[in-house]
């Protein structure tokens, strides 16, 4: 087990121990003095901070961007892009230093409201997934590759794109998901081995939409799943990134560029034409 993997496991164990101590203290006699109860939480925060700041080093730090095909077609816009900052999501954990989030932004007519529901401060608190144009959109293989992971068992939850729902995600749900591992963060997902030590992750896929399984070979442009809203998400979208290993707990991020698109900056709209999988 790598040092990074060991630290991720220890990080989760510390949080679980802290939660157990708190629950025991609430429902029975505390096992430890009040101050010592918080030691595991402090240890977890220190480990988490260390992991979040620990990025690629040496040759990996100067690794050139890997050019791959776009994973979607149609009109989309980018969020949390490595074109704006690295790490794009504020952390190097889970190999996502160069990760990008994209949401479908189809064109609408003059005077019509946008197809994608906007963030609301108060109401509605949540929305159904089918209200978002990204939900159910096809996800395509970015290169000829081998499937190394394909997970499809988590539900697609309601949106978290209001102030109250976002606070719930940040304060409660997100922390609980982190304690139970990377799989609960990225939700239903597919990981592809692109060769030469590069792996592509498609996170938050729609439950029941995966068309591949571990061990399958795929061609660039082949549909492998659909966009969903599983895992640690605010709305249906694709979270995509490249990393240098198949395990998000131990991998480090690898920069990418999409052929014909590049790396869209946050808020930038881009359009991808239809792709055909190579025979």
Features:
9-stranded antiparallel sheet, globular, two-stranded parallel ribbon, 13 strands, alpha+beta, 24% helix, 279 residues, Glucose Permease (Domain IIA)
What does this structure look like?
It is a single chain. The chain is of the alpha+beta class and 279 residues long. Helices cover 24% and strands 21% of the residues. The protein contains five helices and 13 strands. It has helices at 3-27, 34-37, 39-53, 163-179, 182-186, and strands at residues 66-68, 74-79, 100-104, 138-140, 145-151, 189-195, 198-203, 217-218, 223-226, 238-243, 253-254, 256-258, 269-272. It is globular. The relative contact order is 0.20. The mean pLDDT is 88.
Report helical residue fraction.
Answer: 10-25%
- CATH class identity of the largest domain: Mainly Beta
- Please identify the oligomeric state: single chain
In this structure, how is the largest beta sheet organized?
Answer: 9 strands, antiparallel
Shape, please? globular
Enter the CATH topology name of the largest domain: Glucose Permease (Domain IIA)
| Rg on CA atoms, Å | 20 Å
In short:
This protein is an alpha+beta fold and 279 residues long. The chain contains five helices and 13 strands.
